[in-house]
């Protein structure tokens, strides 16, 4: 193995209640502080063991159960917090995370229209550390259950679409550099980047380690087996464009994905899994690895799309052969021998995080004069995992257009009972064909604006 997998994230999953926001009567301390510190101890332990074995760990993260279960109501009387009270809790939480050195914290999904419309924007604009999502449709027990069984999914899609546009407007600047409140917008919401930390989630299962869709299970789903406390769970997310490039170059043909790729990729993950298993104890539970192929911005071999193009059956990503390769890779990723899995376990194709995908968004980046479209990404998501991710769209796109796109993703997710999400960036003052200006983000590459048509 000449290349080495990178650990993008070690994510801890924490279940909170409103009581965790109260002061402990005995110690006089904030209960949430102890809960967070338990997670941090776990995360640093895993990080240390991985780095001692020469693995690069880029981030450690915490994700909670749906924030409506712990943020919205007071513990004492169940009264609903107003916006100012929610803001105070978030400010205190942000200060605690800064103190503990945690830069990524998902508050879980919004479950109601009120949460999507009124609470998500507060979360996103408070801190660069905070991420969240909105539940459009729930995971079904069988793939035959239709999305229409949930009569509220369209309303949630519409509310999410409006929230996406509202978040984009947070970064809207006037000619003097201020926003509608006559204050410069925070850098983490400028140029449409606020939506980097929010997505519409369709049939997403708990324990996905990647943000912003990461969440723990609902408190309702916790086992009532008499245990004194629910263990803190953790999972691993990868960055592995270099590994995909190396193995697919050797495969040469789609026919070898189920053998050569599957076996060699599993070999790369087994040492990571073995390390994580040594960390487990009664109150720390290892959930598995999200085996998804996930790109890096390395111009040499970071792109997943470029790695796929090494196969003789795929001349250019998005053209003939793309679905066939995506389907075979997903099948392999979801059947790696001896690997405990969690999360999406599919192909991550984030346009603004994959240099080849960003290149294909422009006809000048293709050999056939054909540009990559949102409908292409939707089509591919029907046979792989994740959905439509980090796609820049015009700043003047409409609620109806965004709603339709959310419903397309939700329809695929519900029909095939798979975890998919939608994360798009309406970019203020940009039109189709313009180029984004994401220079402030170390996680993004610029791309031309996609059409919503």
For the largest beta-sheet, the strand count, sense and barrel status come to:
9 strands, mixed
Helical residue percent? 25-40%
β-strand amount: 15-25%
Instruction: Give, in order, the helices and strands.
Output: EHEHEHEHEEHHEHHHHEHE
What number is the mean pLDDT?
92
Q: From the alpha carbons, calculate the radius of gyration and give it in angstroms.
A: 21 Å
Give unreliable regions as ranges. Answer: 142-148
Please characterize this protein's 3D structure.
The chain has 453 residues and is an alpha/beta fold. It contains eleven helices and nine strands. Strands 7-6-1-2-3-4-5-9-8 form a nine-stranded mixed beta sheet. Helix 2 links the parallel strand 2 and strand 3. Helix 1 packs across helix 6, helix 2 packs across helix 3 and helix 4 crosses helix 11. The longest helix has 23 residues, at 257-279. Mean pLDDT is 92; it is low at 142-148.
């Amino acid at each position: 193995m000449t290349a080495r997998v990178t650990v993008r994230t070690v994510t801890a999953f924490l279940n909170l209640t409103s009581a965790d926001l109260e002061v402990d009567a005995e110690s006089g301390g904030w209960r949430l502080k102890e809960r967070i510190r338990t997670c941090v101890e776990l995360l640093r332990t895993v990080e240390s063991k991985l780095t001692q074995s020469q693995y690069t760990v880029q981030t450690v993260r915490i994700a909670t159960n749906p924030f409506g279960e712990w943020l919205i109501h007071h513990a004492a009387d169940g009264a609903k917090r107003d916006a100012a009270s929610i803001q105070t809790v978030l400010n205190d939480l942000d200060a605690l995370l800064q103190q503990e050195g945690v830069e990524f914290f998902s508050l879980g999904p919004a479950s109601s229209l009120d949460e999507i419309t009124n609470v998500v924007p507060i979360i996103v604009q408070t801190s660069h550390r905070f991420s969240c999502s909105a539940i459009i449709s729930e995971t079904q027990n069988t793939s035959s259950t239709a999305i229409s069984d949930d009569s509220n999914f369209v309303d949630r899609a519409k509310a999410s679409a409006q929230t996406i546009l509202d978040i984009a407007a947070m970064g809207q600047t006037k000619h003097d550099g201020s926003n509608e409140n006559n204050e410069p917008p925070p850098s983490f919401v400028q140029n449409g980047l606020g939506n980097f930390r929010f997505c519409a989630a369709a049939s997403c299962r708990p324990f996905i380690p990647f943000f912003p869709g990461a969440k723990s299970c609902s408190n309702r789903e916790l086992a009532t087996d008499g245990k004194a406390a629910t263990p803190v769970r953790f999972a691993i997310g990868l960055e592995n464009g270099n590994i995909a490039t190396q193995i697919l170059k050797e495969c040469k043909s789609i026919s070898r994905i189920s053998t050569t790729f599957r076996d060699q990729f599993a070999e790369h993950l087994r040492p990571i899994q073995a390390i994580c298993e040594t960390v487990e104890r009664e109150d720390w539970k290892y959930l598995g690895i999200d085996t998804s192929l996930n790109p890096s911005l390395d111009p040499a071999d970071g792109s997943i799309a470029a790695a796929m193009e090494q196969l003789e059956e795929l001349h250019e990503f998005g053209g003939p052969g793309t679905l066939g390769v995506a389907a075979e890779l997903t099948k392999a990723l979801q059947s790696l021998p001896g690997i405990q899995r969690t999360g999406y376990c599919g192909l991550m194709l984030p346009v603004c995080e994959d240099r080849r995908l960003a290149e294909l968004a422009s006809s000048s980046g293709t050999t056939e004069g054909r540009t990559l479209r949102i409908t292409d990404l939707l089509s591919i998501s029907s046979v792989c995992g994740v959905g439509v991710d980090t796609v820049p769209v015009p700043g003047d796109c409409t609620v109806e257009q965004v709603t339709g796109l959310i419903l397309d993703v939700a329809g695929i997710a519900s029909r095939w009972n798979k975890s998919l999400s939608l994360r798009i960036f309406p970019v203020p003052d940009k039109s189709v064909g313009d180029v984004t200006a994401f220079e402030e983000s170390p996680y993004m590459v610029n791309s031309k604006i996609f059409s919503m048509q």
